[in-house]
């Protein structure tokens, strides 16, 4: 693998809209072959309308990321189209509230399955392919990169979203564990924990609760909500050999929001 992402093959889950779509588009812009994957067929079709269906560098896949068969089929479709896989970005997520005092076990299991287990399974199956590729080219440098998107809720639990918070705390630990397991195979695994970034879900929340914008900006030391592109740049760094000695790290992109106790700041 070289210094950038040109000529490499990437799978991006959650690529039908929002941050996942922004990541997939930027990979295409930088010369990568990209498999856009999402559970939402309508959103994915809309995203793919920007590309010529004959473009040999872009493909799409619709399936439930939490199902074993879907992950296997996604990898197979990627190999059929591009013969290899070098980058995996797990951007698929499910944002859903849950009652901390009366959490329905089915809801908790669903959130864990969608936000942690799905990405872990995808990492496992893709890593096996990356290991095979590394064995075929033992002197080729880095053998692959995995980037998992996380959330501030993993570090700072949100009581009304207990299951979501738990799932991402587990996902971050899985990122570290897989980084240790895959390092001997020259595969890097890192995460990006974000907040105060304009995701699809945040747009939806602001549409319903416009007053939330001021609360987020007030809680963010840099005083703004960042566009998705600013998060994308961090993902590009972790996906490329610019970070070839970086693994097992959770990089926070939040304008300083996780650093400050806003009550303390206001009373000092």
TrEMBL record:
Keywords: Oxidoreductase
Top EC class of this enzyme: oxidoreductase
SUPFAM superfamilies: NAD(P)-binding Rossmann-fold domains
MF annotations from Gene Ontology: oxidoreductase activity
Catalytic activity, EC: 1.1.1.-
PANTHER family: OXIDOREDUCTASE, SHORT-CHAIN DEHYDROGENASE/REDUCTASE FAMILY (AFU_ORTHOLOGUE AFUA_5G02870), SHORT-CHAIN DEHYDROGENASE_REDUCTASE FAMILY PROTEIN
Record family assignment: Belongs to the short-chain dehydrogenases/reductases (SDR) family.
Protein's recorded name: SDR family NAD(P)-dependent oxidoreductase
Species the sequence originates in: Paracoccus angustae
Lineage of source species: Bacteria, Pseudomonadati, Pseudomonadota, Alphaproteobacteria, Rhodobacterales
């Amino acid at each position: 693998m070289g210094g950038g992402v040109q000529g490499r093959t990437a799978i991006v889950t959650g690529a039908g809209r929002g941050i996942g779509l922004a990541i997939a588009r930027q990979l295409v812009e930088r010369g990568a072959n990209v498999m856009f994957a999402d559970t939402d067929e309508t959103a994915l079709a809309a995203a793919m309308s920007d590309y010529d269906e004959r473009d040999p560098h872009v493909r799409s896949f619709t399936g439930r990321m939490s199902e074993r068969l879907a992950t296997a089929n996604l990898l197979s479709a990627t190999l059929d189209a591009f013969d290899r896989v070098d980058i995996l970005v797990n951007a698929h997520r499910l944002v859903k509230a849950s009652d901390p005092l009366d959490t329905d076990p089915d809801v908790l299991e669903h959130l864990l399955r969608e936000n942690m287990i799905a990405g872990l399974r995808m990492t496992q199956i893709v890593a096996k392919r990356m290991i095979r590729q590394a064995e075929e080219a033992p002197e080729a440098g880095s053998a692959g990169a995995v980037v998992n998107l996380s959330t501030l809720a993993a570090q700072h639990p949100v009581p009304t979203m207990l299951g979501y918070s738990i799932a991402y705390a587990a996902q971050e630990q899985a990122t570290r564990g897989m980084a240790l397991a895959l390092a001997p195979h020259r595969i890097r695994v890192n995460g990006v924990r974000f907040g105060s970034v304009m995701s699809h879900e945040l747009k939806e929340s602001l549409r319903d609760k416009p007053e939330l914008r001021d609360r987020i900006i007030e809680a963010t030391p840099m005083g703004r909500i960042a566009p998705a592109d600013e998060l994308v740049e961090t993902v590009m760094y972790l996906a490329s050999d610019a970070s070839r000695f970086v693994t097992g790290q959770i990089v926070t992109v939040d304008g300083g929001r996780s650093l400050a106790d806003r009550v303390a700041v206001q009373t000092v």
